[in-house]
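Ticket #4471: complex job returned nothing on first submit. Input attached below:
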Amino acid sequence: MVDILHRVGIKAPTPEMVYDALTTVDGLAGWWTEDVRGNGNPGGKLEFRFPPIGGFDMEVLEARPVEWVQWRVIDGPQEWIGTTIDWELREYGEWTIVLFAHRGWTEPVEFMHHCSTKWGSFLMSLKSMAETGEGAPAPRDVVISDWH
Amino acid sequence: MVDILHRVGIKAPTPEMVYDALTTVDGLAGWWTEDVRGNGNPGGKLEFRFPPIGGFDMEVLEARPVEWVQWRVIDGPQEWIGTTIDWELREYGEWTIVLFAHRGWTEPVEFMHHCSTKWGSFLMSLKSMAETGEGAPAPRDVVISDWH
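Support reply: We reran it on our side without changes. The output follows.
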């Protein structure tokens, strides 16, 4: 098993803004993909789409304000199914620190390399949205390669 | 042992430009840090500095145009010493694909999370430099957190 790990620090007006960006459809639409629907509360299901290439369905395993969110991938690319995505939030002075982990990849395939960089780019979009009000969600996301 | 993995695609005028960005002092200064000196050829030593917080010394283990570069960290933060940094280049149509791996971390510490995101950001700087002539090397690098 191999994991994708990231850490960003966000100077958000409040840490609740970062938590809401991970647990509400409006928040998620502001940094990951505009095409999202569902319920970000524990037991809920979130459906993220990236037309025309597909998307991900997540089951929300946990969501504890303002410190922890965990999803499990229940549909999407085969490599993603069954993996978990962990969001740990910590307040540190004026910063909200986000510790991110996408855990449970079976093999470090080339697609995992891509997803690692793409998650980093989307975390910068989350940071930008929370700090300035303007993120870069799909379909306006930053192109990192031929795989978009 | 845990690894940081990334993948970016670069529409460089030539793949040699990407290779040169990894093996020459002028190239490295354009995307990672302006404060770099040394020799990027096999057996050479490269010294990267990020004033005022320190830096990294790398031994160049391999450099094969236009496909593979490998460094070993010989001085720097304790967590980095002995780790290796691999750069695999592949031509794919108009793209030069960069498969990056920073291998050999002993533990997935919080600093590793930070370095993963920061590497992603610097890879986007490499991409930008090769595509547009303008990267974002230190001290003009993108701030991702309180750890810079």
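The interface with chain B takes residues 2-9, 92-93, 95, 97, 99-101, 108, 110, 112-114, 116-117, 120-121, 123-124, 127, 142, 144-147 of chain A (CB under 8 Å). Closing as resolved unless it happens again.
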